[in-house]
Amino acid sequence: MTRSWHHYRFHSVWLLDAPPAAVYDVLARAEEYPSWWPQVREVTPLGEDSGEARFRSLLPYDLRVTARAVRQDPDAGVLEIAMSGDLVGRARWTLTGERGGTRADYAQEVEVRKPLLRLLAVPGRPLFRANHALMMRSGRRGLRARLRGLPWGSAPYGSGPDESGLDEG
Question: How many other CB atoms are there within 10 angstroms of residue 71's CB atom?
């Protein structure tokens, strides 16, 4: 199946020095993301399982999405949302215990709906992908800092390199 230039798949792996339940607890509170993830500019709850978010990374454009929880399963370590707005698709965190900390796998598959980004899809694609990668690196740093402020401290596990993959599918 051929996908359009407006379709993106992203994958990142963050290695964190906190237990999966603690990481889940922080990630489950999306309304607090702007306090530790600089590119998440605002999150406005719309109800118990939905909200609106505004993102802006290095490039000079905002993305606005409405997110609705699809799966919230602390026992399985899964948080998944469906998005509509400037991006339509899904994003999913899967958390597993690994080496005394947490492996946080982030997978996102979206179609860009923002008119300007659709217009610039072909020439801008490498920049859009790099912009997303920068946002994810910053989010990882912010989450690590947030977790360091919690009781389990800062073991060396969270200081090494992580894997980030950008699949276009």
Answer: 12
| Statement: residue 3 has pLDDT above 90 | no
Integer Cα distance of 120 and 65 in angstroms: 19
Residue 16 to residue 104: CA distance in whole angstroms? 7
If one counts every other C-beta atom within 10 angstroms of the C-beta of residue 94, the result is 17
- Phi, psi (degrees; rounded to nearest 5) at 141: -60, -45
Contact 147, 36 (CB under 8 A): no
Residue 115: burial class (beta carbons within 10 Å; 0-12, 13-18, 19+): exposed
Q: Is the pTM of this model over 0.85?
A: yes
- Cβ proximity of 57 and 136 under 8 Å: no
Helix-helix angle 20-27:121-148, to 10 degrees: 120
